[in-house]
Specification:
Blueprint: H1 3-8, E1 19-21, E2 26-29, E3 34-39, E4 42-43, E5 51-52, H2 55-59
């Protein structure tokens, strides 16, 4: 993922910066415990497409 793009992307729910999870092809908001998918190299930053993270998943980003 382009670092310039990543530096400006924020969670649409809380406006926190997101973390790029290359392995799982997703952007993660630790504050809201949400994962936004990256499909065909395009981040899908839509609330309705976000997946709620489990507590275990959230811990791996600390």
């Amino acid at each position: 993922m382009d670092q310039n793009l990543l530096s400006i992307l924020v969670c649409p729910v809380c406006q926190s910066h997101v973390i790029y999870d290359k392995k799982n092809r997703q952007l993660v908001c630790k504050a809201d415990k949400l994962a936004y998918p990256i499909i065909d190299e395009v981040p899908r930053m839509l609330i309705e497409e976000a997946r709620k993270l489990t507590l275990e998943e959230v811990k791996q980003y600390d």
